[in-house]
Design goal:
Helices cover about 80% and strands about 0% of the residues. It is mostly helical. The longest helix is centred in the N-terminal third of the chain and has 31 residues. It is elongated, with a radius of gyration of 21 Å.
């Protein structure tokens, strides 16, 4: 097997990176919205809607929301501990 020579940057490389950046931003915003919606339902005690919302999420998104919820829970516990030493 022979190694391929390095290719010079193509005219679309900047466009490809810009598209990748936009898709990353959309994914981040989508996750933030999912966490915000789930948090809002949880804060209002709407367990039925929260369960439906979480059941509708794909495994990857559900894992991301779970990680964000753990982080939020840990930060809230620390804030409470600072207020009530």
């Amino acid at each position: 097997m022979t190694a391929q020579p390095a290719q010079p940057p193509g005219p679309n490389d900047g466009v490809d990176q810009a598209l990748a950046d936009v898709l990353t931003a959309i994914g981040t915003a989508s996750l933030a919205l999912a966490v915000q919606r789930a948090t809002n339902m949880a804060c209002h005690g709407d367990r039925r809607r929260l369960a439906v919302c979480l059941d509708a999420m794909g495994p990857g998104r559900l894992a991301e929301v779970t990680a964000a919820a753990r982080l939020l829970g840990a930060a809230a516990e620390q804030a409470l501990a600072r207020r009530n030493p």
